[in-house]
Amino acid sequence: MSKILVDTIDTRSGTSTMTIGSSNTSTIALKAGATLTNFPNNTPAFEAYLGSDQTVSSATATKLAANTEVFDSDGKYDNSAYRFTPTVAGKYYIYGSIILNQDQNYLGYGDIRIYKNGSVYKFESFENVLGTADSYMHFLSLSICAVIDLDGDDYVELFGLAANFGGGSTQRFTDGTKSSYFGGYKLNI
Fold first, then answer.
1. What integer pLDDT is reported at residue 107 of this predicted model?
2. pLDDT averaged per 10 residues in sequence order, the chain, 189 residues
3. What is the C-alpha to C-alpha distance for residues 36 and 44, in angstroms, rounded to an integer?
4. Distance CA 60, CA 126 (A)
5. pLDDT at 6
6. Looking at residue 25, what is its pLDDT?
7. Which domain CATH number covers 94?
8. Does the residue 27 lie in any domain?
9. Among 118, 139, 133, 125, which Cα is nearest to 165's?
10. HEC readout, 104-137
């Protein structure tokens, strides 16, 4: 094995592409503990979750109050408005999950929605088609994801809806163990 000792490798004048390895190369190894710099990363990125149960009105789309941040790489998630405004244009993977809870009667239907700039971008739903007392369902977990083009001023939010069959009782988004959450990150494509 040969060794080349240099401080900088650069392309010659007039070219902008550097190829490391050849058609015979299958692995490029760095020494243990080495750090790659100036490579694209998946930021801005964030994840936040519901810190305590959130009471919601039946059959009313309500924004998930994901107020507890797991991480927020660039300070682009507003944990009081529950909104992600990346300010960096690109394609973003946005995801979320909400646990719907209805204690006294039972859930008739529910949905989860990603909003972009105040309008529904993507929608997933569930309906309890049996609709009888024999089909009790008090908890339902719904998840959603989407790849969304976001520009400098665009923002995204996560909404859910829970409706009961019995009427008169309270619906909630349940905090569980970080189980109602909202997140996203920039894709490098």
1. 78
2. 77 78 73 77 96 92 97 97 97 97 78 98 85 66 97 96 73 90 96
3. 19
4. 15
5. 81
6. 73
7. 2.60.120.40
8. no
9. 133
10. CCCEEEEEEEEEECCEEEEEEEEECCCCCHHHCC
Print burial letters for 69-88: b (CB count within 10 Å at least 16), e (below 16): eeebbeebbbeeebbbbbee
Could you tell me if residue 8 is inside a domain?
no
Q: Cα-flanking dihedrals φ and ψ of residue 175, to 5°? A: -75, -35
* Radius of gyration, CA atoms only, the chain: 23
Query: Which domain does 81 fall in, by range?
Result: 45-186
Q: 145 — phi, psi (to 5°)?
A: -155, 155
Strands (DSSP E) contained in the chain are 45-49, 54-56, 62-63, 68-72, 77-78, 83-84, 90-102, 107-116, 119-127, 139-150, 156-164, 171-174, 181-186
Length of the chain: 189
**Residue 21 domain-assigned (yes or no):** no
For CA atoms 118, 125, 110, 76, the dihedral sign is negative
pTM for this entry: 0.81
The structural domain count of the chain equals 1
Angle at alpha carbon of residue 77, lines to 56 and 115, rounded to 5°: 50
Phi-psi region of 152 (alpha: psi -120 to 50; beta: other; left: phi over 0): alpha
